[in-house]
């Protein structure tokens, strides 16, 4: 995509603006998700990030005044219950139920992930894939380097063990993953995309259990189920009605 120089020459100021908005939102989403991981578990971070699916219709309502359905409100309520179970899973040193700063940051990150899905559909659907990817990834990378300088994290480790996860996140999880998402959203709605992307929570929990040996708490399982049910309430019921009409 980045090597398609002829198509990149067609980038206009409006494309640059729209792509930059998408890239800035993507940076904030990743920055907050990564920061939240410093203070909470991978499983909780994954489930809380999945809440972005429920937030997409609300973002559409705020930005383009798209009416909210009863299913959206029901799904939001169910997901809030799920957030309560998931975020308060476990306890702190004093024995009190713990909703820590990492959970709060992860939730804010979920808002930006929801905004990224919305704006990729709202702006990206009217642009060439290569334009969207090059601009949004370029802006996200630039902002990431600025964040590194401002946070003072200038001690770089170039060992294989340090570079491998960076390369995986940068190439597979970001470039390939968002490249496929950007192309796919031209053939579906932001809501449908959000439902598919919500499976990240499940895979995140499984990875945390298998690779990081994180404990499986009953409250976290209940919360995850409720969040997923909330997602289904928001998105699949409208799809069922559309299918029935066809």
TrEMBL record:
<dbReference type="InterPro" id="IPR000620">
    <property type="entry name" value="EamA_dom"/>
</dbReference>
<feature type="transmembrane region" description="Helical">
    <location>
        <begin position="16"/>
        <end position="33"/>
    </location>
</feature>
<feature type="transmembrane region" description="Helical">
    <location>
        <begin position="45"/>
        <end position="64"/>
    </location>
</feature>
<feature type="transmembrane region" description="Helical">
    <location>
        <begin position="162"/>
        <end position="180"/>
    </location>
</feature>
<feature type="transmembrane region" description="Helical">
    <location>
        <begin position="217"/>
        <end position="236"/>
    </location>
</feature>
<keyword id="KW-0812">Transmembrane</keyword>
<feature type="transmembrane region" description="Helical">
    <location>
        <begin position="71"/>
        <end position="91"/>
    </location>
</feature>
<keyword id="KW-1003">Cell membrane</keyword>
<feature type="transmembrane region" description="Helical">
    <location>
        <begin position="97"/>
        <end position="119"/>
    </location>
</feature>
<feature type="transmembrane region" description="Helical">
    <location>
        <begin position="131"/>
        <end position="150"/>
    </location>
</feature>
<feature type="domain" description="EamA">
    <location>
        <begin position="12"/>
        <end position="87"/>
    </location>
</feature>
<keyword id="KW-0472">Membrane</keyword>
<keyword id="KW-1133">Transmembrane helix</keyword>
<comment type="similarity">
    <text>Belongs to the EamA transporter family.</text>
</comment>
<dbReference type="InterPro" id="IPR037185">
    <property type="entry name" value="EmrE-like"/>
</dbReference>
<feature type="transmembrane region" description="Helical">
    <location>
        <begin position="192"/>
        <end position="211"/>
    </location>
</feature>
<protein>
    <submittedName>
        <fullName>Permease of the drug/metabolite transporter (DMT) superfamily</fullName>
    </submittedName>
</protein>
<feature type="domain" description="EamA">
    <location>
        <begin position="105"/>
        <end position="234"/>
    </location>
</feature>
<dbReference type="GO" id="GO:0005886">
    <property type="term" value="C:plasma membrane"/>
</dbReference>
<dbReference type="Pfam" id="PF00892">
    <property type="entry name" value="EamA"/>
</dbReference>
<dbReference type="InterPro" id="IPR051258">
    <property type="entry name" value="Diverse_Substrate_Transporter"/>
</dbReference>
